[in-house]
């Protein structure tokens, strides 16, 4: 028979639960006979890794190759634990621990255990959640569902007490702090808001004791016991023990032995509370924030549920009593509440799976709910999801939030985005999925990249794309794209993130200013219709260029080079200059002149040159064009009539041959493409 378990994968301790023969959630003891398994992994030389109490003992005995607190590094690509030349990610280490939990459960339950519900801190992001699922899979466990730790505690509490109303769950564990406000009503549990600090926990309280005592020791003996790893391990162990004693008695002591000295230190509860006041302040601040995010005050709460081993400290209880004016609520056991909730959820998920597969759902023990009421969990987004967009001013990238933190999941939200399109196929939009609360790109993390294909070109050159995010109960995200005015949804493809994301902090390409030099052939062969078409085309180009960011200068070339206007942002000035263009003489290369003018340009320099014949001095022009390229000057060459196609291709970044009557269109397209890609090399002529 396949068995299911609920797992509290804690930072310092983990636990496993299931449903017993009476339909009640119970903790499954590990092979050491304990309810809690230390979240510690040890690598013995030449043997298989060991997790749990044995690993913790090895750590305390000063063994290297032991690691704990790796949950804090979940999803951190920089973190690696190296041992015997091998590297382990936090996911790998979690997998080793999960394997031990699973093996222990199989030993206790007497059957294979394949299905699980695992809890994570409410503020874990998608990467951290999916890494948790990955770790379970490596350990041979199917994850039926990931649920938030405070939600799990409330599930357990909701069943045990059947209290309706709004609850604040205050979870202070060994390494993490979680606050969640939720509403319990009959069988429904709805999360209203959530927050926390994944670097605040009981361990920090221990550290305060260690620092306080070793400072005294150093003053007395001139030696710091922290310098010796073995002594430090002793200190860690004894400080935690002292702390736990202070939860019960008003004063406790510990002895430090180091460098031939031995000293006993006494700490009162009062002193301990004074030493750790700043840590309490941290939890108070976070609690206040989460309450106000739910739009509630202390008076609106039916109760405060304390979860996590560190809430056994009287300072926590006293503060909660003071703020809420009520006795804090506790599960039957604060260490086990999360785990038992996970077990209940696992039973519900297993029943649901069986029902879906047409099975009677009677495999294994069934959950018995008081009054037979169904239990419904409604969770919320623990962080906002958005997309990278260009700011209104066009000068930088911003995070545009699509799904807000704290909305109830599952949820689907849309938001329209503008996209410049060009004629022909191949218009597509890149969506960079973000997680984070602020509008600044520095305040969010880019977690995914999607390409929406099949966008149609519109007459105005601007399409409106509705980007939709759908977020389901397990935290799986779907990206949907629709072009306004078009029926079928766009094709969406998920792509890996590029390694180099530094562009996020630069100027959006399409809006970076350009310094464009319009260089028009005014030799005699252009006289009449060709020149008047060229002027029309140049005017069209000006019309399609964003002169707020880009400047245009106008050059006529024949035997001589004439600057009709210097780089300008003034439409009137540029248009007047174009209209003044007048034919004269033969055709010499204008590139030398252009190079001199543009080589030191601050804005991206682009030469747009139009010609109808071949130039004298081609060799010199080719040499100059190479210097232009080295100086970052782009050259777009447009030829018609008896222009030399090969030569134009040689001197330009990009070139095209066109007809007189298509000139206006071509120039318009080039202006648009330039605006969109920010350089000539991004342009594709179709
Ligand atoms: P996690 O979920 O982060 O693994 P737990 O909820 O199991 O953590 O809590 C572990 C923390 O609780 C440890 O820091 C431990 O020292 C602390 N703790 C356990 N019992 C007590 C106690 N009686 N008084 C104070 N702290 C305690
Ligand atoms: Mg915990």
Describe this protein's structure.
Helix content is 31%, strand content 30%. It is α/β, with parallel strands linked by helices and 686 residues long. Strands 1, 2, 3, 4, 10 and 11 form a 6-stranded mixed β-sheet that branches. Helix 9 (314-324) links the parallel strand 17 (303-307) and strand 18. Helix 11 (529-543) packs antiparallel against helix 12 (571-580). The two termini are 64 Å apart. The model is unreliable at 370-374 (pLDDT under 50). The structure holds adenosine-5'-diphosphate and magnesium ion (MG). Magnesium ion binds at residues 8, 10, 149, 173, 308, 338. Magnesium ion (MG) is lined by residues 8, 10, 149, 173, 308, 338.
Short description:
By secondary structure, the chain is α/β, with parallel strands linked by helices.
Architecture blueprint of SSEs:
Blueprint: E1 3-8, E2 13-19, E3 25-27, E4 37-38, E5 40-42, E6 50-51, H1 53-60, E7 66-68, E8 81-83, E9 86-88, H2 90-109, E10 113-120, H3 126-138, E11 142-148, H4 149-161, E12 165-172, E13 177-185, E14 188-197, H5 202-221, H6 229-246, E15 251-258, E16 261-268, H7 269-275, H8 277-293, E17 303-307, H9 314-324, E18 329-330, H10 337-356, E19 376-378, E20 385-390, E21 397-403, E22 411-420, E23 427-436, E24 444-455, E25 462-471, E26 477-483, E27 491-495, E28 514-521, H11 529-543, E29 551-557, E30 561-568, H12 571-580, H13 591-598, E31 604-611, H14 618-630, E32 634-639, H15 645-651, E33 654-657, H16 663-677
Parallel strand pairs: 1-10, 10-11, 12-17, 14-19, 17-18, 28-29, 28-31, 31-32, 32-33
Antiparallel strand pairs: 1-2, 2-3, 2-4, 5-6, 5-7, 8-9, 12-13, 13-14, 15-16, 20-21, 20-23, 22-25, 23-24, 24-27, 25-26, 29-30
Helix pairs in contact: 2-3, 4-10, 5-6, 11-12, 11-16
Bound molecules: adenosine-5'-diphosphate and magnesium ion.
